[in-house]
Design a protein that fits this description.
It is a single chain. The chain is 36% helix and 13% strand. The radius of gyration is 19 Å and the shape is globular. It is α/β, with parallel strands linked by helices and 354 residues long. Helix 3 packs parallel to helix 5. Helix 2 links the parallel strand 4 and strand 5. It binds zinc ion. Zinc ion binds next to loops.
Length: 354
């Protein structure tokens, strides 16, 4: 029965770069590991561009561009006809992992991906939670496995930012029971749970990530989903303080940021040069309303970052999909909004002409 102001924000106050979207996906996977080169496209450019134009979204980064012929198709569909509106990232060829000479081959492959148009690389949580010694069987391969060192160094040499997703909400590492704050979501998607079996703990994943950040100081990393730890902004801030090569983005975590609005606002003020705008938008992604690409999704994001509206839904969905709570707007300053919406991404993605 709460009567509070409702501010409509159909268009962002300043131009936006959405650094985390999925306009194509690897067509095949095996036990969670993408295999093969083919991609499925999730939308047609004209439909995406109309939403972007209405919302003041200048550019979208399609992170999941796969590699080889799939990458070529994603580049040809999105980036080549609209180079100022779309950017495509490549992904490692996980299914080559067991072949002799893989570490150097993968590093060299990034050079070929760059020649094909890729602007960066996306690391799904394949690394750390799915990829195994025999690709889909055997022990899990750790995030800081040295066999990927040539790949991380190639990223630095090519100026490829690394968009990395290594852990999920802390609740996904706990039992799916009545004490779990994401019970409904996990009950609906039990395969999202990393509790038990041979999975590393949340803290072990973060520790492996930190070793990676420390070992490759010249490589720029973007920690997706608020550095994979939106529930613990103090820990994210500590990582940003410790690793100058680390940045974060906000995709699919305004539900977390918005239930701690005072801490979040302080975080944005303090790290205003290190946070990038991202949504995890998937055209047609009805299974995850918090990621469903469209006007409604962007309006919620803009309302959250720009206004001080109180107690509103964080996803275009009748039931909050990532926990039954609502959020409070941050009312970020114009200075912070400009950096967060555009300027930080412009710098990290290398769009800015020297
Ligand atoms: Zn994503």
């Amino acid at each position: 029965m709460l009567h509070v102001p409702v501010t409509e924000v159909p268009r962002a106050k300043f131009p936006v770069i959405d650094v985390h979207t999925h306009l194509s996906f690897s067509a095949k996977s095996q036990n969670g590991v993408p295999v093969g080169e083919a991609v499925n496209l999730t939308a047609a450019p004209a439909d995406v561009l109309s939403v972007m134009d209405r919302g003041n979204i200048r550019m979208m980064v399609n992170l999941t561009g796969n590699h080889g012929s799939g990458l070529a198709e994603a580049v040809k569909t999105w980036q080549t006809p609209h180079p100022d509106r779309f950017m495509v990232f490549t992904e490692p060829s996980w299914d080559h992992f067991t072949q002799p000479g893989y570490p150097q081959w993968q590093a060299d492959e990034l050079g070929r991906a760059e020649a094909a148009g890729a602007k960066g690389i996306k690391i799904l949580k394949t690394l750390g939670l799915y990829l195994r010694e025999q690709i889909s069987s055997g022990p899990l391969v750790t995030i800081d496995d040295k066999r990927f060192d040539p790949m991380w160094e190639a990223c630095a040499a090519l100026g490829f930012p690394v968009s990395i997703h290594i852990a999920d909400p802390e609740a996904f590492f706990l039992p799916i029971d009545r004490f779990n704050e994401r019970f409904e979501e996990l009950n609906g998607h039990p395969d999202w749970s990393f509790h038990g079996k041979d999975f590393p703990s949340f803290n072990e994943l973060i520790a492996a990530r930190d070793r990676l950040l420390a070992r490759h100081p010249k490589t720029t990393f973007i920690g997706l989903h608020v550095g994979h730890d939106a529930e613990n902004l103090a820990a994210v801030g500590a990582a940003l303080d410790k690793y100058p090569n680390f940045h974060v983005e906000t995709a699919a975590r305004i539900g977390e940021l918005g239930r701690q609005p005072r801490a979040s606002k302080k975080f944005f003020d303090r790290y205003q040069d290190r946070v990038l705008f991202g949504t995890d938008a998937v055209p047609g992604g009805k299974d995850t309303p918090q990621q469903l690409f469209g006007d409604a999704l962007y309006q919620i994001y803009f309302r959250f970052f720009e206004t001080e509206d109180e107690y509103f839904d964080y996803a275009p969905s009748p039931v909050p999909p990532q926990g039954r709570w609502r959020i409070y707007g941050l009312g970020l300053s114009d200075q912070v909004l400009r950096k967060f919406y555009y300027e930080n991404a412009e710098r990290v993605l290398g769009l800015k002409k020297a």
